[in-house]
Fold this protein.
Amino acid sequence: MSAPINECRGCWVDWTDPLVHSTIVTGRPDPDYDVSDPDESVALAVQVASDILLRLTAYLVHPAGTAEEDYLASPRIRRLSTNWRPLRQVLEVARIGLDGLAEPLGHLPVVIGHDAYFSASRCSLNYWVSTICRCDPNDVEYVRMRYRFGSTVTASARRAVLYLSRQLWLQANPSQGECELPERVTSVNREGLSYTIFDPQTYLMERKTGLPSVDLWLAAINPAKAVRPAGIWTPDAPPPVNHTTRWTSFEELSA
C-alpha cells in the first residue's frame, strides 16, 4: 500500500479493535487478538464495505459526523430539514449574503427533533424577511446550518459490514481462504453446448452484494431500493444542499 491509512473515514466499525480485526482476518472474534502491528488492508476492506453499504442503504445507515448545508432563504423559510439524521446538535446558523460572506444569526429559537425546526411562534413571514432575507424579494439568499448528526450503525449493520469486509479482505488475500463474493458469471446449456457468460450487472441492478446474509439485511433496511431517503419539500421548507460532511473518528468518540 502506497500510504498508511491513519484514519478510516466513514467506517462503520473501528478496524483497530481486536474483535473487528480478528473477525475480518480469521473469521472469528478474538478479544485477545494482537493488533500491535495491524494489517492496513483490513482498514481498506472496512472502508470499502462501509462505503458500499452506505449507498445501498440509501444513506440511512451511517456513522456519526458533522455536516454543513445550505438552504434557499428567499422569499421565506420556516423550517430547516437536514440530509443527515438523527440531528443531535445545531452548531451554527448563518446568513449567506449576495457577497458570499457568512453572517451568524445568533441563538435563534430552535426545536431539535429528528430534523431541525425553527419555533413557529417566531417564524412569521415578516420576521424572516426582515431578519434573514434583507434584500429584494427577487434576489437569492441562503441560510447555512452546521450541525452534528448521530450514528445509525446498529448491531445488525455492524454484522453486515464485518461480513462484507471479510469477503473483500479475502478477495485481496486469496491465500487466506476462499472468498464468497460471486464471480458474476452465468452458465448456459443450449443444444448440447455449455458456455459461460460474464454478467456484471446482475447484482448491481438489484442493488445487492451477492452475499445472502447481507442482502437479507439490505432488503429489510431498504426494501424499495431507494437511492436517497424520502422527503417532502414545501416552499417554506426547501431541500438542503450538502456543503461538507465530516465523519467523527473513533478516537473522538472515545475521548
Observations:
- The mean pLDDT is 82.
- The CA atoms of residues 58 and 230 lie 9 Å apart.
